[in-house]
Amino acid sequence: MSVKRDPRYDVLFDTVSIGPVTAPNRFYQVPHCNGMGRMFPDSMISMRGMKAEGGWGIVTTEQCDFHPTGDVQPFTETSMWDDGDLPYLTAMVDAVHEHGALAGIELVHNGQDSGCLYSREVPIGPEHRPVTWHQHPIQARAMSRDDIRNYRRWHRKAALRARRAGFDIVVVYAGHDGTVPSHFLSRQSNQRSDEYGGSLENRLRLYRELIEETKEAVGDAMGVVARFAVDEMMGADGLEWASEGKEAIEMLAELPDMWDVNVSDWENDSMTSRFAQEGYQEEYISFVKSVTSKPVAAVGRYTSPDTMVSAIRRGVVDMIGAARPSIADPFLPAKIKAGRPEDIRECIGCNVCAAWNNLSAPSRCTQNPTMGEEWRRGWHPETISPKESDSTVLIIGAGPAGLEAALGLGKRGYDVILAEARIEAGGRVSRESRLPGLNEWARVRDYRLGQIERLSNVRIYLESEMDAGQVQEFGADAVALATGALWRNDGVGRSIRFPVPGCEALTPDDIMDGKRPHQPGSAVTVYDDDHYYMASVIAEQLASEGYRVTLATPGMCVASWTEYTLEQRHIEKRLLNMGVEILTRHELSAVEAGGLRLANTLTGDTREREGSVVSVTARLPRDELFDALKGKISVWRIGDCFGPSIIAAAVYEGHRYAREFDAEIDPDGVPFNRTRYSLQH
Length: 681
Ligand code: ADP
Ligand code: SF4
Hints:
TIM Barrel, Rossmann fold, 8-stranded parallel β-barrel, FAD/NAD(P)-binding domain, 3 domains, binds iron/sulfur cluster, binds adenosine-5'-diphosphate, 28 strands, alpha/beta
């Protein structure tokens, strides 16, 4: 069935000239980290190729560091230190070219952000100062004029090398407070007194030189893109778009072939949906087109074609930049082109992708379970093999795991019955999306329900709680339990191994069910031994209802794991602004009538707080059905009812169940391909 594209989206498929090269459309997959890079190159190559197949007009590398003094171990980005690094980058270029897209490379030297843990070189920067990552006891040394000349030569050579690798576009990068030219530009990092410090013109000198030299070296064949942060989001202490940010762009306006503009640092650029909405960077970058005639690209977690068209029509951008939307749906452009925008798997802005990268593991995605599995498991985001039997599958539980399993099996052609106890599908996603700031998470449910609606072989029954007898009576050929997990209420978690005396706390499940501790205005302690987002959103919810909230945690800071999702500072700031008391390094030691005791995890000193407790510590699988059915029928568990984890894991397990259904899996084998390295001796 061919569907005609709405003509108002045609503008998205205009070609765009970028110096000597032409992008086939306005979809630009900006450089983005992915935890694969040089360490898992086969995975990285297929993932980039998939984006080109899905219609992105430009597909770039993540940052590619080009000299051992910019070594960012343990982060697994791409690197190109010499010609020995060319083969895997060339393979990526070929994978992108195969589908008619332009291949871009982002040349980066992280300067004072580089620990040089692997290379053992001395890091470099505008001035002597400790390196910024992880408080390593290592300092970057101030670059002399000779160092600056060397650095410029390395950059020029890297551009020439990139051309030899076949890249069409080179991105010269001054952003995220993470590269040498951005460090030179920043007043916070550059107090030099020579021609590279002081005035804006001086602080911008190095960046200008890099762009000029790159143009001179490769500009006849490659498009030279300036990726530039126009605002450091620190008010008058840093670059502000309305003053120095704007002046900087004016000074270099016609120099690059395209501007790719954003805000700094990465935590501000890649804000989660809890803190920023689609298009949130427009207020900072919308001036850029008024000061340059060159094409302008920007990100803003654009997933709606209407918003994209609007940004172009309003003269904000020429190219739609995207990292996360291209991870959640590598086929986003192709779907718009084919007149199927309702099929877009929209990013939910959770930053799980960033977290895995920050943990130096291949990025995964909550919405797209095939991310990082394109080569490893041969999973394609849009296709799945047809069924191998006429089995009927009963799935119990329509949370993310059950919905994804039903969708995958349904697309394969199996008859699927999905039974859900509640009045609505979505499981934890529906419930959690009603907590403060998490409304976009409902997209996990909505995308799957929208797709399932079109499959006549998948039937969903709501308000259908199943017991073991009913399951057996149903007589399906296979049964998958996706019944989820429940938060425990006894304080047991990472820190506390035995139930806390007297603790029968409220849990996040209770709060989501509408239960509340006493009256608004009363005191409540949210005890967090989970360390991800849940305790902080519960605290936010209760504080907004007028409770006097303390957030106590054995952790070193609030929601410590959200460092990886780039949210920790935003979360702590929001709670402090709401008047939430924060008590770190404390664990729950007793709950008594009218109050609780907390003990310092190091000294054992105790503190008392009045009021009630909401405990956010650990979850237990809902596996009663499994216990009742095992040995009687063939039954699998998927998602949280097998192993409680993050939503991305539930989606992934549901997807995997659908892919592997009817397949023979060697339980002793490694279930995916691995890149093999050859020894040098
Ligand atoms: P997951 O993240 O693994 O998908 P969720 O907790 O989000 O898990 O979803 C589990 C879903 O299973 C919930 O919507 C819950 O109502 C449903 N459920 C649990 N037990 C039963 C049951 N016996 N019959 C039908 N649905 C059930
Ligand atoms: Fe978007 Fe979350 Fe997927 Fe990242 S992990 S692309 S933020 S849905």
